[in-house]
Design goal:
Blueprint lengths: L8 E6 L6 E9 L2 E6 L11 H15 L7
Length: 70
Amino acid sequence: FHDLYDEAEVHFESNYTDPIFPVVWSNQFYLGKVVICTLGHNADSLTNPSVFNLIHQSLTWISSQISTPS
């Protein structure tokens, strides 16, 4: 993972697999933002307050403006 995404900020990792692999990470590419979240596989996962909060915070960060140097 880190060989491909050395600039990514890992927020959560899985200790289920070997090697340990990120399950939530974010990155900025030029003027764009990316959040990858592999948690939950169905609509029921959205009823979990922690998952819902993570998605909400991710959308808030993605929709915020990126500052560029003048």
